[in-house]
Amino acid sequence: MRPESLLFAVLWLPLLCLAKIVEHVRDLDTQSFDFVVIGGGAAGNVIANRLTENADVSVLLLEAGGFDEDDLLVIVPAFSFNTMGSRLDWNYTAQIGQNNRTGSFSRGFVLGGSTAISMQTLPETPDGLGRAYSLTLERFTPPADNHNTSGQFDPAVHGFNGINSVSLSGFLHRFNELIIETGRMPETEFPFNLDPNSGHQLGIRWSQSTIFNGTRSSSAASYLAPPFRQRPNLHILLHAHVTRILPTTTNQSHYFSGVEFTQDAGETLQVVTATKEIILSAGTIGSPQILLSSGIGDSESLSELGISPLLHLPSVGQNLTEQPLLIYAWLVNSTDPRDFAGPNATALTAEYLEQWKETRTGPLVNGALSTICFLRLPDNASIFESFEDPSAVPTPDNFIGASPNLLTPASRGFLTLNTSNPLDHPLINLNLLSSEFDMFAMREGVRSVRRLMEAPPFQGFILQSTIVATTDEELDEYIRENVVAGLHPVGTASMSPKGADWGVVDPDLKLKGAEGIRVVDASVLPLVPAAHTQAPVYIVAERAADLIKAAWYL
Ligand SMILES: Cc1cc2nc3c(=O)[nH]c(=O)nc-3n(C[C@H](O)[C@H](O)[C@H](O)COP(=O)(O)OP(=O)(O)OC[C@H]3O[C@@H](n4cnc5c(N)ncnc54)[C@H](O)[C@@H]3O)c2cc1C
Ligand SMILES: *[C@@H]1O[C@H](CO)[C@@H](O)[C@H](O)[C@H]1NC(C)=O
Ligand SMILES: *[C@@H]1O[C@H](CO)[C@@H](O)[C@H](O)[C@H]1NC(C)=O
Ligand SMILES: *[C@@H]1O[C@H](CO)[C@@H](O)[C@H](O)[C@H]1NC(C)=O
Ligand SMILES: *[C@@H]1O[C@H](CO)[C@@H](O)[C@H](O)[C@H]1NC(C)=O
Ligand SMILES: *[C@@H]1O[C@H](CO)[C@@H](O)[C@H](O)[C@H]1NC(C)=O
Ligand SMILES: *[C@@H]1O[C@H](CO)[C@@H](O)[C@H](O)[C@H]1NC(C)=O
Ligand SMILES: *[C@@H]1O[C@H](CO)[C@@H](O)[C@H](O)[C@H]1NC(C)=O
Ligand SMILES: *[C@@H]1O[C@H](CO)[C@@H](O)[C@H](O)[C@H]1NC(C)=O
Ligand SMILES: *[C@@H]1O[C@H](CO)[C@@H](O)[C@H](O)[C@H]1NC(C)=O
Ligand SMILES: *[C@@H]1O[C@H](CO)[C@@H](O)[C@H](O)[C@H]1NC(C)=O
């Protein structure tokens, strides 16, 4: 063999193996795969990774958005505020609450899904789920500024070898010091909590985020890191907007094996086949929309829209559950730009971005939250007589944010199709604050934040609240006018017991009444966790991957 041809062979092989993320359907070698995963977000990327651990299994992952590993909008943690409404966002509009007010409703439109645009805060779950997650899936890493983290988390309840990189805040604000000091005061209503995985969820604590060395760790950066995405049996097609799932043509059963998608805004439709299963992981909005567009939902309303009903599952799109959030800003007595979120983010960002590029340090290394405080309503709160316990930026002044966010809302919203065109946005009604419980809890949330900001350590630092409402009536009106989505929606393809007359999937996540399809993403959660939702979705997807492997002896 001549040296040139040897060189050719050596170079050619790695090139072939690297070409796993493709942008056009013609770049796929085949149209038939063992599994087709719809949506490359939190859940979809877990499934794609875990199923391709077995080299004999072929997986196609279809993602509507694109992917650029070096996209600053994704990888700079603090830019999470700029992702909303950007080219990385589906830009849904939703009816927010009770007064016909509509607002934007963000979901990630990029490989990594919402984990590529999220605020990167890790969850904290009271029931051991958080700890189970942390110990097995987490890789706890030093913060970007390498500060001594002793006393800021409990290493005993964290993992250091998992797939998702996590760190504490890598840039400390004065606000953080003051709030931790408040937590350490004797007999405070807001006690310091070392670690949410310790079994205690309540109190003030340091936030843990999916950030590594000052850089976002999305599900694409973790579950689809180069060693995984280069697997020859994993195929990733970008810019593939899935429109419907299709039943097999061989019989009239509810056996689904076809996935229809478009890469040119509906001008041409492509179909790929899953010989084993379709995994629907398009998220709380995308998954029910694809089901409804395919004729799976409430048969009567689908017929009215001109869609042939295939499978009557009236729960599709219903029970949409979202956490209400009230952005609450506080004017502060400081001119040090590191003490607050303003005043002129644009000017400061250019300077900080240089620092970030050079050393991966500075104010841009943090997500939205550096410190968190979880609270419960007191047991004697009047609302419990009628309810069971369910367990932005206003001015150019100097301000910080301390915002109440209800983790366990009782209100339920819904999603329906607006038209029969699968490419049109669905109608989303979050129906926030429709329950009296939620109104009560948000009102008390505002009051809790006020008590917190009045604590002695904040004196001389906090100048003024930007919300003046005080009576119940004034607060209710203010909250109704200003509540926004917490961006943790779940429940639109809810899991329910096998045989239940409601719900969309069985406990094994198989679509009820159908074969060949499972739903695996935030939409299957029947209740919103009293937490952030990213890690619960990872946990559900890891469990689903185990179930799928067991079902096919993989
Ligand atoms: C702005 C924002 C901030 C957030 N902050 C936090 C936080 O700080 N902490 C936290 O824990 N959680 C946070 N979340 C929530 C968290 O990101 C989600 O709960 C989680 O990503 C949901 O996972 P998923 O797999 O269900 O959906 P996603 O991660 O949204 O993935 C769905 C994927 O499917 C794709 N898709 C949808 N429809 C189609 C289609 N028709 N065809 C092809 N592909 C499709 C999407 O483009 C996307 O990639 C935030 C979310 C947002 C939007
Ligand atoms: C969302 O809006 C932004 C800004 O207008 C736009 O650039 C982007 O393409 C939109 N997203 C989608 C999926 O169309
Ligand atoms: C909301 O809109 C509906 C229909 O458009 C209307 O009947 C109702 O009065 C409106 N409600 C409020 C509070 O504006
Ligand atoms: C970190 O701080 C703790 C407690 O203050 C101290 O015991 C420890 O020695 C410090 N570690 C380092 C590496 O400085
Ligand atoms: C329909 O076809 C699929 C695949 O061809 C098969 O597995 C399934 O058993 C069939 N269902 C019925 C009811 O015949
Ligand atoms: C909504 O969820 C509840 C359980 O939390 C269930 O009883 C009800 O039937 C569901 N509604 C629909 C329309 O699925
Ligand atoms: C912010 O800074 C930029 C660049 O220095 C400047 O052009 C702009 O006017 C400033 N905006 C405000 C509100 O001060
Ligand atoms: C973090 O990023 C900096 C700047 O790019 C780099 O020099 C350093 O090696 C990185 N550290 C780790 C642990 O990856
Ligand atoms: C609840 O109990 C606390 C003390 O335990 C008391 O101060 C407060 O007034 C009570 N609130 C109500 C609404 O009864
Ligand atoms: C629903 O469809 C109507 C008619 O096509 C359109 O005018 C309206 O803007 C759509 N609503 C949403 C939320 O997309
Ligand atoms: C603002 O801070 C300065 C210095 O820390 C202090 O002297 C002054 O009293 C504070 N102003 C208010 C209104 O608290």
TrEMBL record:
FAD binds at V110, V242. Residues 283-297 form the Glucose-methanol-choline oxidoreductase N-terminal domain. The active site is at H488 (proton donor), H532 (proton acceptor). InterPro entries: FAD/NAD-bd_sf, GMC_OxRdtase, GMC_OxRdtase_N, GMC_OxRtase_C. Keywords: FAD, Flavoprotein, Glycoprotein, Oxidoreductase, Signal. PROSITE patterns: GMC_OXRED_2. Its cofactor is FAD. Residues 1-19 form the signal peptide. Pfam families: GMC_oxred_C, GMC_oxred_N. GO terms for molecular function: flavin adenine dinucleotide binding; oxidoreductase activity, acting on CH-OH group of donors. SUPFAM superfamilies: FAD-linked reductases, C-terminal domain, FAD/NAD(P)-binding domain. Belongs to the GMC oxidoreductase family. This is Pyranose dehydrogenase. The lineage of its organism: Eukaryota, Fungi, Dikarya, Basidiomycota, Agaricomycotina.
